[in-house]
Amino acid sequence: MKDINYPLVETKRPPIYTAMKYWGKKPHNIWGAYIRNYTKKDGCILDSFSGSSIAAFEAVKVERMR
């Protein structure tokens, strides 16, 4: 795993993240960068509170959830 030692800036939100009121509040690409850099390839992500489900969507996109 490599450390993130640069600022993570939010990119333009895809339409899936603007469909619900809460989804648009979380920076999706920053979640994706953390998951990609700080989890194992064969691992799995647990988003225990899952209010907006951004962590779950990003985990699926970077193939960390089955």
Quick recap of the structure?
By secondary structure, the protein is mainly alpha-helical. Helices cover 29% and strands 0% of the residues. It has one domain (15-61).
Report on the architecture of this protein.
With 66 residues, the chain is mostly helical. The chain has one domain. The protein is built from two helices and no strands. The protein has helices at residues 28-38, 54-61. Helix 1 (28-38) crosses helix 2. The radius of gyration is 12 Å and the shape is globular. The two termini are 21 Å apart. The mean pLDDT is 76.
Write the SSE topology:
Elements: H1 28-38, H2 54-61
Keywords:
about 70 residues, mainly alpha, 2 helices, about 30% helix, about 0% strand
Low-pLDDT stretches are none
Q: SSE order in H/E notation?
A: HH
Overall structural class, as computed from helix and strand content, comes to mainly alpha
Total beta strands: 0
Distinct helical segment count: 2
* Mean pLDDT rating: 76
Strand content: under 5%
Give the fraction of residues assigned to helices. 25-40%
Principal-axes shape call: globular
Cα-atom radius of gyration: 12 Å
- Distance between termini? 21 Å
The total tally of domains equals 1
Main sheet specs: none
